[in-house]
Amino acid sequence: MARALDLRETAAALERYGRRAVELMVIGAVLLALTVGVGLLPRREWTSDVIGWLAGLTLTALIFGIGARSTGKRMRHVLGAGTWSAHAAVPVARTWHSATVVLASPDTGELWPLTVVAVRQRYDLVRPGPDGVLWWCGDPRRGGVIAPPGGGELIWAKPVRGRAARRRIVARAEREGLPNRPVPRSPQSGPAPATVVERRRRWGVWRWVVLAGAVAVGLGIHGFESSDNDPQVDLTVLSRQEGDACTVSWKDPFDGTARTGPYQCSPDLDPVLEGWDTGFVVSYGLWKGDLYNADLQGTPAFDVDNALFGLGALAALVGLVAGGVGGWRRRAVGPVPTRAPGDASRVSLANAGAEPVPTYALLAAHAERQAVTQTATHRPGADVREAPWWRVRGLRRVSGLNEVLISAAGCAGVGALVLTGLHEDITVGAYTAGVLVTGRLLVSGFRLLRSGRPAALLLARAATAPVPVVRRYTMLHDPYGGAPALVVFPAHGGPDDRPEGLLVLASPGTPKRPWLGLPSAPTGSVELRGWLDRADSGLPVVVPWIEGRPLWPAEPYQEAGGSEFAEQLERLAPPQEEEASPL
């Protein structure tokens, strides 16, 4: 095939990686400016705490941003010079070490222990899926890029240091059976299958609106806080004009010089104090030295502070709402499937010429190749037929109740500190954390009431429907993220049956073991319950029961027919990858 960077998904992933690096560096520069600005303020009890937090965040953003930019340049060099190759892969857990993965060379069978240069959350994007296959581009002795099949997520990996450590990791991979796994098909250039292309992201614009609003709010609060340190000065009234306008003189509290200027004198001043008044001098910002009275007249500083705070809060609110609405609309519409006929930059996994609609035999063979032997046991949760929905683990995830409970616990902790009087010794950072947790509780609670709880009740009602529909299934996994999906076939048929429907499932396991709790067999019999209820899209809500327990769907049931069903099925099992099966 052509260079790895010629693949459209790889080029887009590298562009996203570089954009994240630039965003981190920009955030670090903004935080650095804020740190310097706070450092120039008059010293107060809270300034040292704020400077410490800002300095830590600044260093973190700059270090990660500069490191990501350097890694992006190395990725571009490697991907522009090499090609993708498919490898059998096994993840190896190492305590107090970065994530490690072992690749098997398809040519020599040599095992390559590699250390992932990424945070844990990014490694989860390329963790070997059920088929245990990763793509590789680079030199295993110096480092290279790993990606899930399709090349849509990129992570830099380097060889494990230390001969003893390499031997231990290779031995663990051998015990996992990596040398005995079949050699995966190498990526080959060919006709472009239907591919999912994400819509253009707009949250990137709104995040800067939110950041700008937050900075403006911070500057406004800084002005309010700094005004508490404004010194009070005695004034000598030199002349009084019409109304309360006066010309006064005073001694500058900062440099000790005598100054003269206009002032709004106090009305109805006692005759005993004739020729004398008192005022305040601004101690911060561009208006340092301005004279103003008790009604805040005489300087634009307070108008600017109010404008910064109000407009900044409005901008942050608009950014959050617009970004949230845009994200909700993109999730509702979904990704855009496109086809580029004859585009050699797309990748298929085998030769063309497969059947346009896959059969049960083809998909069953594909499911068998993706099957993973589960060594850990899945602790059964409450039975939805006997317990209320909020006790069922899967429904709590669907509804977002877990997030609400975690946020409520954080708010309860902050409230306990306030009630016990310990809050007087708490730093500004702790107060900020309390505000963030409270905001998260409000947002997650709103989502729970608006959509989470109705969705959980709908699924619980579908799962306990009285009459099940028995069908055969094959369990496939999305190559982009590993989400499980059931392809449903007639209950009584043969290997040439065509699919009746498709049901995308929510992973029942943990982030590290997303397949924990899935059926032990990649094919078998399933009971479908529900059918009568409809989602907002008009599609039926169906809950599958396999091996006596429900698997909660992430999307409504898609019946066979139409371009959307065909594109989703082609995404799960590209036609070029399918082979005849003896089933």
Looking at this protein, list some descriptive labels.
single chain; about 575 residues; alpha+beta; seven-stranded antiparallel beta sheet; six-stranded antiparallel β-barrel; 11 helices; elongated
Verbal overview:
It is a single chain. By secondary structure, the chain is an alpha+beta fold. It is built from eleven helices and 22 strands. It has a seven-stranded antiparallel β-sheet. Strand 16 and strand 17 form a beta hairpin. The longest helix has 36 residues, at 428-463. It is elongated and about 105 Å long.
Outline of the structure:
This protein has 583 residues and is α+β, with helices and mostly antiparallel strands.
Topology of this protein?
Blueprint: H1 8-39, H2 47-81, E1 85-92, E2 100-104, E3 111-117, H3 120-126, E4 133-139, E5 143-147, E6 155-159, H4 163-175, E7 188-189, E8 195-197, H5 203-226, E9 232-240, E10 245-251, E11 258-264, E12 276-281, E13 291-292, H6 301-333, E14 336-338, E15 347-348, H7 360-370, H8 393-399, H9 401-420, H10 428-463, E16 469-477, E17 484-489, E18 501-504, E19 523-534, E20 540-546, E21 549-550, E22 558-559, H11 563-572
Antiparallel strand pairs: 1-2, 1-4, 2-3, 3-6, 4-5, 5-6, 7-15, 8-14, 9-10, 9-12, 10-11, 12-13, 16-17, 16-19, 17-18, 18-22, 19-20, 20-21
Helix pairs in contact: 1-2, 5-6, 8-10, 9-10
